[in-house]
């Protein structure tokens, strides 16, 4: 029963990941052709695709919810916190010295997408480590 559920979860996450990847490719191509890349929502779709692919890898391991899984989640949030602070410092520096000219919506969307991707990618890296 559990192995069937693991396979079902993996396939579902891969399907959603491919769907988000195709949608993000289409919307990114449209925003690039109009000259407003990143619009904000296109970056979020890329982050959702990364999240789905990471969950496809992590689903069989996280279904058990044992001590190892809890440690991976704990450590991932700890490391992600400092990485996200680094993103914010870099973005604030670029905005302060006008190296980057983006709207507030674009800045928030970029930070949100980086946050989503960072948390899930660190979970994948830590699942290989522990």
From TrEMBL:
Membrane spanning residue stretches: 12-33, 39-58, 78-99, 105-126
Keywords carried by this UniProt record: Membrane, Transmembrane, Transmembrane helix
Superkingdom per UniProt: Bacteria
Protein name (record): Permease
């Amino acid at each position: 029963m559990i192995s069937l559920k693991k396979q079902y979860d993996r396939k579902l996450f891969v399907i959603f990941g491919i769907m988000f990847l195709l949608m993000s490719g289409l919307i990114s191509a449209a925003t690039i052709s109009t000259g407003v890349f990143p619009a904000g929502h296109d970056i979020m779709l890329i982050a959702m695709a990364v999240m789905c692919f990471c969950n496809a890898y992590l689903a069989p391991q996280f279904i058990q919810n044992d001590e190892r899984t809890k440690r991976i989640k704990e450590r991932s949030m700890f490391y992600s916190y400092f990485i996200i602070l680094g993103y914010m410092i870099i973005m604030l520096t670029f905005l302060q010295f006008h190296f980057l000219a983006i709207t507030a919506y674009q800045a928030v969307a970029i930070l949100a997408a980086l946050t989503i991707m960072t948390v899930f990618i660190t979970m994948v890296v830590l699942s290989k480590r522990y």
